[in-house]
TrEMBL record:
This is KANL3/Tex30 alpha/beta hydrolase-like domain-containing protein. Residues 65-74 have a biased composition (Pro residues). SUPFAM superfamilies: alpha/beta-Hydrolases. Residues 1-112, 368-388 are annotated as: Disordered. Pfam families: Abhydrolase_11. Coiled coil: none annotated. Gene3D superfamilies: alpha/beta hydrolase. InterPro entries: AB_hydrolase_fold (IPR029058), KANL3/Tex30_Abhydrolase (IPR046879), NSL3/Tex30 (IPR026555). Residues 47-58 have a biased composition (Basic and acidic residues).
């Protein structure tokens, strides 16, 4: 007995197509209708050949692919965790140790926004240098610190050495801007601040020099420690197109604020002042271990303020107070009007923040616990009032 033949899937499909074609077209148009039913073109193909399998003739419907997710929105607040690298500028007599902030691993070094140097007897590992540079670099701005000896003239030349080694801004540039527009600010602590002024003066006497037009002077030693002489001559000789940020403690015996105020009034250069409440010449807040954290945080915040000042300066707000608030466990500050005591500053804290502190502080909160308003809330309310 011959084996029983089984109908294949393709033959079954063809039979169904033939049956439907005969019903609708008649015998004469059967083959053409079959070809049409199977999705084939009788004008270009022999419809009597064995048809392809159904899965080839009638493709399966494909599921729609989901659209790729949109790229993440960039953060409106640029605050990063900074890292640093050490290097040495070679020299026949005195190599210069340097420390540079690193913002993109593997990327070429950026031209520095600020070249900064330490005080007499210090070095790049001094706590105040570390804290200031960490705060400065956390805003995304680039800083290079260099180490030098106690000779003022030699230290001032260190700024030129760093610029020469780092390369001109046109050669290296930096992200997000035209490299030809980048100019490095000069700055330093104590003796380093004096060296920055001397270096800026030297460049001001040369034509077409854009570096050193902005100065960040922390704990500037206005009064000599031994003879008590007032070191204001180099400040008074700065040209009018120079802009200076002083950062001084109100307990700094080498820079009494009344004397600094008098000098600022005589200077041709435009000046701003950040007063650190309770800080001495070394920017230390006295009060034992309880103020150790405050000293560190104030140091970092001063770095952040300096970085923002380099990017944006307000001619209508030239003076600022910052202080450590132990109960709130953070740095507070006000621009503009002062009223004497810390209690008065606390009472007017919100008013001071409302005057534009958001531009200079990185710690901008949308709101805080216990119903306290954050800097973001106050700034948004102020912006609405200004628009009206």
């Amino acid at each position: 007995m011959p084996p029983k033949k089984h109908a294949t899937r393709s033959s079954t499909t063809r039979s169904a197509a033939v049956k439907d074609a005969k019903t609708s077209k008649g015998t004469a148009g059967t083959e053409q209708a079959v070809a049409s039913a199977l999705g084939r073109d009788p004008a270009t193909e022999d419809v009597t050949t064995k048809p392809a399998r159904d899965k080839d003739a009638i493709p399966k419907a494909t599921k729609p692919q989901p659209s790729p997710p949109p790229p993440p929105r960039p953060s409106t607040q640029k605050t990063t965790t900074p890292t640093f690298t050490n290097y040495t500028i070679p020299g026949s007599k005195n190599p210069i140790p340097c420390r540079r902030s690193v913002h993109d691993s593997g990327a070429p070094p950026r031209s520095p926004d600020l070249i900064f140097t330490h005080g007499a007897g210090g070095d790049l590992t001094a706590a105040k240098m570390v804290q200031f540079s960490e705060g400065f670099a956390s805003t995304g701005s680039s800083i290079v610190m260099f180490q030098g000896n106690m000779n003022l003239s030699a230290r001032a030349k260190g700024f030129d050495s760093v610029l020469a080694y780092e390369g001109s801004s046109k050669d290296k540039g930096r992200e997000g801007g035209d490299a030809s527009d980048v100019a490095a600010a000069f700055g330093g602590r104590s003796m380093g601040a004096r060296a920055a002024v001397v270096a800026s003066q030297a460049r001001a006497q040369a034509q077409g020099q854009s570096h050193g037009k902005l100065l960040v002077l922390a704990s500037y030693p206005l009064v000599g420690q031994q003879k008590g002489d007032v070191r204001d001559a180099i400040l008074l000789s700065l040209p009018a197109d120079t802009q200076v940020l002083f950062i001084s403690g109100d307990r700094d015996n080498l820079c009494p604020l009344p004397q600094l105020e008098s000098v600022r009034a005589k200077m041709k250069a435009r000046t701003w002042l950040v007063t650190v409440v309770g800080a001495d010449h070394g920017m230390d807040l006295h009060g034992g271990k309880a103020l150790k954290k405050g000293t560190e945080e104030v140091g970092r915040e001063c770095g952040r303020i300096a970085a923002r000042w380099l990017k944006e300066r307000d001619d209508k707000a030239r003076e600022m107070d910052v202080w450590w608030h132990g109960e709130r466990d953070r740095v507070l500050g006000t621009w503009g009007e002062k009223k004497g005591g810390v209690e008065d500053r606390d009472a007017n804290d919100m008013k001071g923040r409302d005057a534009g502190i958001k531009r200079f502080f990185s710690k901008v909160e949308a709101g805080t616990k216990d119903g306290e308003q954050g800097l973001g809330d106050i700034s948004r309310r102020r912006n609405k009032k200004m628009k009206k």
